[in-house]
Amino acid sequence: MRIFVRGAVALVILIAAYWGWALAGAAQLASAASRGDAEAVMERVDLQALIRSLASQISRAFADQNPQLQNPPSLGHGVFLNGAAAEMLLRALLTPENIAALLSQGRVGVLNANGKDTATLWGMPSLGEAFDARPLQVIMHSHFDGPRSFVVGLDSPDGRYRVHLTLSGLTWLMSGVDVPEPVTARLAKLIAQRIGGAVNLRGD
Questions:
Q1: Are the CB atoms for 186 and 123 separated by under 8 Å?
Q2: Cβ neighbours of residue 87 closer than 8 Å, sequence gap 6 or more
Q3: Any idea what DSSP says for residue 76?
Q4: Paired sense of beta strands 107-108 and 78-81, if any
Q5: How far apart are CA 100 and CA 113, in angstroms?
Q6: What are the E-state strand segments in 121-198?
Q7: Can you give the pTM of this predicted structure?
Q8: Among 80-89, 132-141, 161-170, which is the least confidently predicted range?
Q9: Tens digit of each residue's pLDDT (9 = 90 or more) over 140-160
Q10: Would you say 108 and 120 are in contact if contact means Cβ atoms under 8 Å apart?
Q11: Largest pairwise CA distance in the chain
């Protein structure tokens, strides 16, 4: 019995330590973003995985907005937004500076076709502020969804964002963000408006 109790205690300590390690990885990412150190931020971001995560969500949002276009005929009329279209805008949007701004200030602005600033398109709670001002809430809203995959939840008026981190070697990398539906809807509309070549027009 004593061996069982000791084993259970040791397991709890190991789990707590692993959880703390993942939280520390997220906190280090938030700290680098708060300092405006874009280079340090990118060392803790898996950019390709982040883009794929967002592109998939945006493509689904566009399909939901346009159900009549989900299965366009190969020779008919219609418009559809594919994953490549989403990735094109995201690669322009997710610069090191913009990722740092998103994590530290909770917003990303977009330029219009004339290169002028438009209103903030994508806003989310600041990861840095969450760790500084609401660390207990960060802990309560964090969990593992796999042995090497950790999630930090951030509440916003649009809904809850979920920042995904994946263990790569000995470093926790930001590998995705689950974005609330109202935000993905706005992003899908922007991409449909902004990327003519990647939004496929059939029958024209």
A1: no
A2: 51, 52, 55
A3: S
A4: unpaired
A5: 24
A6: 122-123, 142-146, 149-156, 159-168, 171-178
A7: 0.79
A8: 80-89
A9: 999 999 999 999 999 888 889
A10: yes
A11: 77
